[in-house]
UniProtKB/TrEMBL annotation:
Protein's GO biological process: gamma-aminobutyric acid catabolic process
Gene3D superfamilies listed in its UniProt record: Aldehyde Dehydrogenase, Chain A, domain 1 (3.40.605.10), Aldehyde Dehydrogenase, Chain A, domain 2 (3.40.309.10)
Assigned EC number: 1.2.1.24
Organism: Aphanomyces astaci (Crayfish plague agent)
Domain of life: Eukaryota
Pathway field: Amino-acid degradation; 4-aminobutanoate degradation
Protein name as it appears in the record: Succinate-semialdehyde dehydrogenase, mitochondrial
GO molecular function annotations of the record: succinate-semialdehyde dehydrogenase (NAD+) activity
Record keyword Oxidoreductase present: yes
Family membership: Belongs to the aldehyde dehydrogenase family.
Amino acid sequence: MTLPVTFLRLLRAQNEMVGQKRKKSAIAAEVDDELKEKRRVQWKLNQRNSRQKRTNLASTLTKENSDAAEAIEALERRLEALAGSAVVAREPMSVFRGNAAVRIIDEYYQVFQNGFATCPVQQQFQYDFVRKIMTTSTSFMNAQGAESVVNQWRLMTTSHHSLRIRPLSCEYMKEEDGVVVRAVSRYIVRISRNTLETLYPHVLSREALVQHLVGLEVDALDTVHSYFDGDGRIIRHDVVIDFVNPLIKLLGNVDLAAEVLNGAHLADNGLVDIERNDKRAQKALLHGDVGRPQLNLQALMSKLLATFMGRLQRPNLLQAQGYIGGRWNPSTGVNVGSIAAMDVVDTEAAVAAAGDALAAWKSRTPFERSGVLQKWDRLLRDNTNDLAFIMSTESGKPLAEAAGEVAYAADYLRFFAHECLRHEGFLVPSHLPGRRLMAMRQPVGVCAMITPWNFPIGMLARKVAPALAAGCTAVVKPAGTTPLSALAFAKLGHDAGVPDGVLNIVPAAHEAAPRIGRALATHPTVRKLSFTGSTSVGKLLAAQCATTMKRVSMELGGNAPFIVFDDANMDEAIDGLIQAKFRNTGQTCVCPNRVFVQATILQKFTDRLVDRVLDLTLGDAVSSGCHLGPLITSAAVDKVLVGGRPHLALGPNYMQATVLAKVTLDMHIANEEVFGPVVPLLAFETESDVIDMANATDMGLAAYCFTSDLGRAWRMSEALEAGMVGINAGVISAVQAPFGGIKQSGQGREGSIVGLDDYTELKYVAMAGLS
């Protein structure tokens, strides 16, 4: 599929863009208020006219409707007779014994569907019949409870317009302090905006997704547990609704269904509460204590796991539990679907396990540790397809790039497996006779690692490989959006012979991340913390680490310049820009964020760049031939304020690649890191000008320069304020080279022999008495 490219004329000034956003927000608020007022007026009008509609019903009913009305009256009489016997017996809910009442209600709906399908006031009949059910068959309930049930049912039918319910079963269970009734129903509802407002309010902010959903029919099951006290008064209702499987079936896309359900809030019982912002619904709750509708994400996760299992050659790579002390233990916390969500208690257990394993692991010879890493390297390469599929599915990284990342991670294991064999100390000349002076390297100890989602295996290997090679043990907190890749990596390490406790993986939900980060940063057993992520979080962790004076290495945000001089090979420069910018759909810390092109070639460069971007293919990340996958979350899409529209047919997180012209340094996009497929083009005149423009940032991770002038290449490499500079190269990372930034892009280096040094302490030894 060919990807269209939007070529935009940028806003003249930032304040104009802010003003337009505020104006749009104000207009949207006015429209929203107007719609609410219209709905309120319409609802009042319906209430006022309902009695008149009843009066005029006889003139509108056909003969078939009249026959149906008679059938309904007969059913009502049967129901009253059944309820009467129950009232005499004074046994609450005995009317449901043998499901007799359920069968009557079911017959009513059959008649209603056949006889009143064209009736203009069909809802009023539904209200009346349900009211009769509540006041006759559940006479043990107080009047307030019966009225509340009817009002809640009225609200649902009004909100969803076309709601059809078929009761399936009803069980009556006595308990010491009252009665519990479990009712299961099948319902079909056509999704409207009111439906989304009631059930999926978080979706309303995504208009394209709303348009896709409105009009679809959901066919689902719900289970209601009604609790009554000893006097027959209703206490509360708990409602569990399965929205997962119906949405998967409707949308034909597990990821899109997950996006619709995203935003629900985890409950202690492993279910998920759907936020309800409809005040009328809240007023209709029984005695103010009815449970909100809930959905069980287990069904969704089971579907995802089944999809994974069918594509993996080694299904046991898909681990859904934490890895602490060599055992796959479920967390003591709440499970999100089937993925263990750990917290501080689990983190402390992982640190303890790493501390217990440290002495034995560091006492192994470098040759023994190297052997484990080499076997791990081979296992990664042997399982490339499975690892790439897991990574691509959970992160959206195109499959070919994911496979390349697996090879990149294996390269780190191989490099440090060999490097640890020659990681030597050194002798120091003595200033006194009979003495020997030396410096030796020893492992730092227990190391904590917090890894990002955009390279879930590559960055994990870049941290874990040198740590284990040096004799350290590790506790890893992977990104909450990509835990499966980290757990699969750990599984292969376990198979390669990594001893219990040497490597520990602590997956966690987003809200637990700050607590776990603080626990790792302040724990006295942890002697080094390595973090890759945002600058703001890095600063916070560094401050927390200072309380125990532990070593830190930080790879933080970037704002990389990409400079093209008029003497550069334009084809090579565009190739390098495509490689650097659109890798992982623009979601890397070394992506060029500001593309400076010499003014004399800017128009020609722009035209040719647009042609190349047109050739990029946007598609399903796990499909072959895909250049661009989705952004990681809907929040990432929302951050891209200017750019192409989402491709809803593929999913809500797919974003068009975009080229922006006439960008100036006073615009936000020239001063903030953009994690997305957006290329801003800026013009420059001279070499000194572009050096000043490129360095006008607090960040200093990577920089790129294309020129055919060798002298200029040297000058630029020295003048650009960045930890890494690519000259005529769009891909600069290599396992044998130090990776890291300056300024607020971090401190310390990963990769290369320097990366191994960072996991050791240098100990000086002076030995006397040797004369």
